[in-house]
């Protein structure tokens, strides 16, 4: 297969592949990413054993929640993207979770003090005031979040040079949590190596993780994709870095 045909086949395959849910199995053998050292899923499972009522905000396809071995009596998840709502409801049947469809950036549709545990993996935006409101006194918020400038090398490979990131700084998240009346008890940060081995993996990732290149389409960004394909062919891979931070806070 010649190079022109190969790149078009790789792009077409990735453009047609489903991106529902929040699993990344499609990238197996085509891309890798280091995991944060704190093992978020294990932390969630451990916290769930001590909870009576728990909420997972922005659950995606419910992938993390579905792995909880001992779910609490009341387990609820929210999700704003309709395709993910369907996936999450199917995925979370086995742990007895109720999935609530919400509007993007809307208030949490629950009474004050409804939960003694709120968790969230890679939330679109954390509403700290709402989080504090739905937590019971003594309750805990645990979240793994996207850090500033995550996957910046990939963003710049498609878009060109970008300004310094102005948001998603862990220190600001901690300050916002404290301002909402929570007490931050843990804050950790990690920089994780991500490697893409073909341009199809890049296309699929950009379709799924939409904030990496806002408004991404194959057609609009084809010249940059072809240039990146040549880099991958020459170097054997393309390396970027994901930024993550863990924050845990309690309601006094």
Automatic annotation (TrEMBL):
Pfam families: Methyltransf_11. GO terms for molecular function: S-adenosylmethionine-dependent methyltransferase activity. SUPFAM superfamilies: S-adenosyl-L-methionine-dependent methyltransferases. GO terms for biological process: methylation. This is Class I SAM-dependent methyltransferase. Keywords: Methyltransferase, Transferase. It comes from Micromonospora profundi. It comes from the Bacteria. The lineage of its organism: Bacteria, Bacillati, Actinomycetota, Actinomycetes, Micromonosporales. PANTHER family: METHYLTRANSFERASE (PTHR43460), METHYLTRANSFERASE TYPE 11 DOMAIN-CONTAINING PROTEIN (PTHR43460:SF1). Residues 55-141 form the Methyltransferase type domain.
């Amino acid at each position: 297969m010649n190079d022109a045909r190969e790149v078009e086949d790789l792009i077409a395959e990735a453009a047609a592949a489903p991106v529902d849910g929040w699993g990344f199995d499609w990238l197996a053998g085509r891309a890798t990413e280091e995991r944060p050292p704190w093992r978020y899923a294990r932390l969630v499972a451990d916290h769930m054993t001590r909870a009576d009522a728990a909420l997972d905000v922005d659950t995606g396809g419910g992938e993390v929640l579905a792995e909880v071995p001992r779910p609490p009596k009341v387990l609820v998840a929210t999700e704003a993207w309709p395709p993910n709502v369907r996936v999450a409801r199917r995925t979370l049947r086995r742990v007895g979770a109720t999935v609530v469809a919400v509007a993007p950036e809307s208030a949490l549709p629950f009474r004050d003090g409804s939960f003694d545990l709120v968790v969230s993996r890679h939330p679109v935006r954390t509403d700290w005031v709402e989080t504090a409101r739905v937590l019971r006194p003594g309750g805990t918020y645990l979240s793994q979040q996207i850090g500033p400038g995550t996957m910046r090398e990939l963003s710049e490979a498609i878009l060109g040079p970008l300004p310094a990131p102005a948001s998603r700084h862990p220190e600001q998240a901690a300050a916002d949590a404290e301002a909402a009346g929570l007490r931050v008890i843990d804050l950790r940060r990690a920089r994780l190596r991500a490697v893409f081995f073909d341009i199809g993996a890049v296309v699929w990732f950009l379709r799924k993780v939409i904030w990496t290149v806002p408004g991404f389409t194959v057609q609009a960004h084809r010249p940059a994709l072809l240039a990146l394909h040549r880099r991958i062919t020459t170097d054997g891979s393309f390396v970027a870095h994901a930024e993550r931070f863990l924050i845990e806070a309690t309601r006094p």
